[in-house]
Amino acid sequence: MKILPKTKWGWVRAGVIFAAAAAVLFWFYGMPECRVLCYSPEEGDVVFQSLPHVDLVDMIEGATGSPFSHCGLVIRDGGEWKVLESLGNVHVTPLYQWVQRGRMSGFAAYRLTENRRAKAPAFVAETKKFIGRYYDFRYDMDDEFIYCSELVWKGWKNATGEEMGRLVPLGELHWKPYVETITKYEQGPPPLDRRMITPKNLSEAPQLRPVYRSGI
Fold it and tell me: Contact at 8 Å (CB) between 101 and 84?
């Protein structure tokens, strides 16, 4: 049975379909691979990304005026580069899969400054202690539930005694357009005095310096 196109336009259509399929495959597999290959990870790096759009992600990005809606800690595990993160719960995700999840596979990486690099092993060890804790949708700073930037902040705090980034009250953020989303997850009125560490404020910490950014 012949399956090849019989006309010029049939070949054109087949070419368009092939090109579209190749673009989709590159989008899902090639682009993350390219971004990862261009980044030289080190244990203790803090990585940031934009998650796919949902109300919570839009609230985080809009309230902070930043594309950073998620972050995690780069670790070396079983000979592979992985990201220790809180998404659903605190767990470890292969770096490639972590990058692939972000919008357009974009991400940014920040590294400990030279005078703090020796603290990386303790930083990783303390952060791992939170593995298994569930995600905190209320963004409280207690230890019962842990959100992504809180995980990194507490790992560093417990390892060094230093605060990584400035804790900001909700009332200082651009929260009003997102009052419905905040009320939904808080199950009550917005807690304007609640202090939290946002991905944006974490990225501005003096302990970190940017080393890579692409697609975000």
Answer: no
* Overall average pLDDT of the 81-89 stretch: 98
Identity at 79, one-letter amino acid code: G
- How far apart (Å, rounded) are the C-alpha atoms in residues 199 and 17? 40
Angle at 12 between CA 7 and CA 17, to 5 degrees: 125
Distance CA 150, CA 108 (A): 18
Report DSSP state, residue 117.
G
Give the torsion sign (CA, 78, 112, 89, 216): negative
* CA angle 87–141–193, rounded 5-degree value: 120
Closest CA to 73 of 163, 152, 189, 172: 152
Distance CA 57, CA 62 (A): 8
The pLDDT confidence band at residue 18, using thresholds 50, 70 and 90, is: very low
Q: Which amino acid is at 62?
A: G
Average pLDDT, the chain: 90
Task: Taking each helix axis as running N to C, give the angle between helix 148-160 and helix 120-128, from 0 to 180 degrees, rounded to the nearest 10.
Answer: 120
Q: Which of 192, 197, 200, 153 is nearest to 176 (CA)?
A: 192
